[in-house]
């Protein structure tokens, strides 16, 4: 009953910027955390950034100082502002959310479909 829809991926040059968005919809009682993962071809999926409903954030060392995760709780949307992009940032980026759909239900993990980010000259 929960859907995550991502947007904002594309092709950018090294040093450029891109902003990803992920909107959650459906039956939502509370979103405990939202995260961005990425997966490059032939590599494992890695956690890029996390933000809690209270606004606490965490980043992978590889993106600290360059990426910023934020959210709009009223819109159930999480963003990832990516600056100073490098070729090694090229990957499919996936939105992830820990969601409680009802007050009596347990929280579950939901995934977006992924959006491609390509950093190349």
Report a brief summary of the structure:
This protein is mostly beta strands. The protein is 0% helix and 57% strand.
Key terms:
mainly beta; 0% helix; 121 residues; single chain; 7-stranded mixed beta sheet
How do the strands and helices of this protein lay out in sequence?
Elements: E1 2-7, E2 10-12, E3 18-26, E4 30-39, E5 46-52, E6 57-59, E7 67-72, E8 77-82, E9 91-100, E10 108-111, E11 115-119
Parallel strand pairs: 2-11
Antiparallel strand pairs: 1-3, 3-8, 4-5, 4-9, 5-6, 7-8, 9-10, 9-11
Oligomer: single chain
Radius of gyration computed on alpha carbons = 14 Å
Which percent range describes the beta-strand content? Answer: over 45%
Written as H for each helix and E for each strand, in order along the chain, the element string is EEEEEEEEEEE
- Structure summary, number of beta strands: 11
N-to-C terminal Cα separation, in Å? 40 Å
As a percent range, the share of helical residues equals under 10%
Notes on the structure:
- This protein has 121 residues and is mainly β.
- The protein has no helices and eleven strands.
- Strand 7 (67-72) and strand 8 (77-82) form a beta hairpin.
- The protein is elongated and about 50 Å long.
- The relative contact order is 0.33.
- The mean pLDDT is 96.
């Amino acid at each position: 009953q929960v859907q995550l829809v991502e947007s904002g991926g594309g092709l950018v040059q090294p040093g450029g910027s891109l902003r990803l968005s992920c909107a959650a919809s459906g039956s939502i009682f509370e979103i405990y955390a939202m995260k961005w993962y990425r997966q490059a071809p032939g590599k494992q999926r890695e956690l890029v950034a996390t933000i809690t409903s209270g606004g606490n954030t965490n980043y992978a060392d590889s993106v600290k100082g360059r990426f910023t995760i934020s959210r709009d709780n009223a819109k159930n949307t999480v963003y990832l502002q990516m600056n100073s992009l490098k070729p090694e940032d090229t990957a499919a980026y996936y939105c992830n959310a820990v969601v409680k759909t009802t007050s009596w239900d347990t929280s579950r993990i939901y995934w977006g479909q992924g959006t491609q980010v390509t950093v190349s000259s």
